[in-house]
Write a structure and sequence with these properties.
heterodimer, A: 421 residues, five-stranded antiparallel beta sheet, 14 helices, B: 156 residues, mainly beta, seven-stranded antiparallel beta sheet, 1 helix, 7 strands, elongated
């Protein structure tokens, strides 16, 4: 069955351009948390040779020379635009897997009698008109191949106008095309695997496709074997309409400024626990362990370094923010050492299990605040995150991240709407 | 929780009473749920006629995914009943017709104007004191961002 992979072009930059047409045709980068490194680049910036993840301070000279516009990540905007895009695309197939904020798979089973390229062009023009985001579409027999087809569509390697349908290519055309693509462009083949494959003489996608799956399994892993099969149009990965519940939930941020004292660290950790616990409840899970960690800036070689984490098993699995916060702060007090410039803290909720299948312990040490948590989640859904929160998360929040170049939250705040004259 | 085990879940500790009226309901799986006393009076004659209450969202928004809100600044469109500070409901899914009021992008700036086809191209008409019309010739590209469906302003 054919599968389509639809991907927003330079998604964060495209979202910004919808509401600020002055950015059209100009070099734009979107920076990560704390305005650290490039997480999205417009084509103009890519043409200047700026790589994904380049720190902002390293490209400041280039930015001055070429007038690169840098923006802080505006996640509220990107999330809303993503939801709109996914909702429009969901009209094109009953099988949709939202794979990330800017890409989704569509199963096209039963569409064999349609012209799939025309179907894909309709998706592109509707998303472009309704939401304002340019997208590319790759079509092939498997998920891995459709990712590759999408790569071809972006680079205009096969097919034009942002759509690439590999199922239309003859076997020779397919071989010739895949021979021109580096193996590192295959979904799931990272830089390290690429190097190892190169040691085995496998440089191109075509070479990997021709490799013997059994040998690959022995030399590498079952995952790479699956990739080889998928490249040969044998589906091994199905469309996941419902994303499986997460096995662990993380929440961490770098701080806007260095943090030295325990008090602001406690506020940060309590805030991260609240965010993660909200997600935990939303997926109907409880956590059996909480991990908390803090660290200094590893890139500052002149400063003393410290990095420490601690995992706290909970006597009773829980999704109670207050209980989880107590556990995390207990751990934080044990790992905190004064005299360091802390740059980052984080927490991980682990050993997750279903809320419904709980083995109650004989010596239950706390009472669940289910109703209270429900009230908190409902209030925060209506009046905004953090409206109801534990006092441990603090008031001053001197540690929050810097987003100095952030555009307005055009679609989620009444006072930040776009202006027309 | 096994059937038949009664567990009053989540009564907030140290609280006088439940936060919400439904709090305190005990649900035993497999047993019918009786949340509150059954009223035994005359049954409401209206129950067969209950309909969904009117929603302004549904009335004003035809295509949720394509609808955006835009704030008006200035009085260039008062003649069309669009005032400074109005909230515009803009639908990007609609194709603009002749004389549609649209959000147009002129020199990277959002403008609310009436788009009229004229022999020389498209005329973006204003209708406020001191605001001229803008002619977009065939050599220039007119970007229509969306079609304005509603203008909302407070009256009292």
């Amino acid at each position: 069955m054919p599968i389509a992979l639809i991907d927003g072009n330079n998604f964060y930059v495209s979202c910004e351009r919808v509401f600020n047409p002055k950015l059209e045709g100009r070099p734009v980068v979107v920076l990560s948390n704390n305005d650290g490194c490039a997480v999205a680049r417009s084509n103009e910036v890519k043409a200047l040779g700026v790589k994904m993840g380049t720190p902002w301070f390293q490209m400041k000279d280039l930015a001055r020379q070429h007038g690169i516009i840098a923006l802080s990540s505006n996640y509220a905007l990107y999330a809303d635009m993503s939801n709109r895009m996914m909702s429009v695309l969901s009209q094109y197939s009953p099988d949709q897997e939202i794979y990330s904020i800017d890409e989704c798979f569509l199963g096209l089973d039963g569409f064999e009698n349609y012209d799939l390229v025309i179907h894909a062009q309709a998706m592109r023009s509707q998303v472009r008109q309704w939401v304002g985001i340019p997208v590319c579409v790759g079509i092939a027999e498997t998920k891995t191949l459709s990712k590759l087809a999408n790569h071809c569509a972006k680079k205009s390697l096969a097919g034009a106008d942002g759509v690439c349908d590999l199922t239309r290519l003859s076997e020779t055309e397919r071989s010739r095309l895949l021979a021109t693509i580096e193996v590192g462009d295959v979904w799931g083949i990272g830089p390290r695997l690429s190097r190892q494959l190169a040691d085995h003489g496998i440089h191109s996608v075509e070479a990997l496709r021709r490799a013997d799956p059994k040998t690959i399994r022995r030399e590498f892993s079952v995952v790479v074997e699956r990739t080889v099969l998928e490249l040969n149009a044998i589906p091994c990965l199905s469309i996941e309409n419902v994303s499986p519940a997460k096995q662990q939930i993380m929440s961490s941020r770098s701080f806007g400024n260095y943090v030295y004292d325990l008090a602001p660290l406690k506020e940060a950790v309590a805030t991260y626990v609240a965010l993660a616990a909200e997600k935990l409840r939303a997926q109907g899970s409880v956590a059996g362990m909480v991990q908390v960690y803090i660290r200094t800036n590893p890139h500052r070689e002149d400063a003393p370094q410290y990095s420490k984490g601690l995992t706290i098993p909970l006597p009773d699995p829980s999704n109670d923010t207050l209980y989880l916060t107590r556990a995390a702060l207990w751990g934080l007090r044990r790992i905190y050492r004064p005299g360091f410039a802390y740059q980052k803290a984080g927490i991980v909720l682990m050993n997750l299990s279903d809320t419904t299948n709980q083995q109650a312990s004989l010596f239950c040490t706390h009472r669940e605040n289910d109703r209270l948590m429900e009230v908190i989640d409902r209030a925060n859904a209506i009046w905004g995150r953090g409206t109801l929160r534990s006092a441990a998360t603090g008031v001053s929040k001197s540690w929050v991240m810097k987003r100095e170049k952030m555009s307005p939250q055009y679609t989620t705040h009444w006072e930040q709407l776009p202006i027309a004259i | 929780m096994a059937c038949g085990v009664l567990t009053p879940r989540g009564q907030p500790a140290g609280h006088g009473g439940p936060v919400f009226p439904e709090a305190g309901v005990i649900h035993v799986p497999g047993c019918p749920l009786l949340a509150r006393p059954v009223p035994a009076g005359f049954p409401s004659p209206a129950t067969d006629y209950i309909e969904t209450r009117l929603s302004l969202d549904k009335h004003l928004i035809e295509h949720e995914d394509a609808t955006f809100f835009v704030r008006v600044q200035g009085n260039s469109m008062v003649g069309f009943g669009i005032h400074d500070g109005d909230l515009l409901v803009v639908d990007r899914s609609r194709d603009p017709g002749d004389r549609s009021v649209v959000i147009a992008v002129v020199d990277g700036q959002f403008m609310v104007k009436q788009a009229c086809r004229v022999p020389e191209g498209v005329l973006l008409r204003s209708s406020g004191p001191g605001h001229g019309d803008i002619l977009v010739g065939p050599e220039q590209e007119l970007a229509v961002w969306g079609v304005v469906r509603w203008a909302i302003h407070p009256v009292s």
